[in-house]
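During the no-cost extension, the postdoctoral fellow (Dr. R.K.) reprocessed legacy sequence entries with the updated structure-token encoder. One reprocessed record is reproduced below for audit purposes.
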Amino acid sequence: MDTQKLQNDKLHLIQWITQIQDHILIEKIKSLMCTSNESLDYIKQLKENETLMNKDEECIGSKIKYEL
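Re-encoded structure tokens follow.
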């Protein structure tokens, strides 16, 4: 998705949310935000673990080359 379209979509959502009067709908959006944040945190954690694993593999690879 192009950056300008993404920004326009975000602004449109913000404007729409500010006009919502339905309390139940607001609660559903908040729930969605929490779920989304938890998913993002999980993905970040997976990426951090993958980076750590890659560094460990590099260290092990270097050690093996050094020992040879």
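The longest helix spans residues 23-67. DSSP finds two helices and no strands in the chain. The remaining legacy entries will be reprocessed before the final report is submitted.
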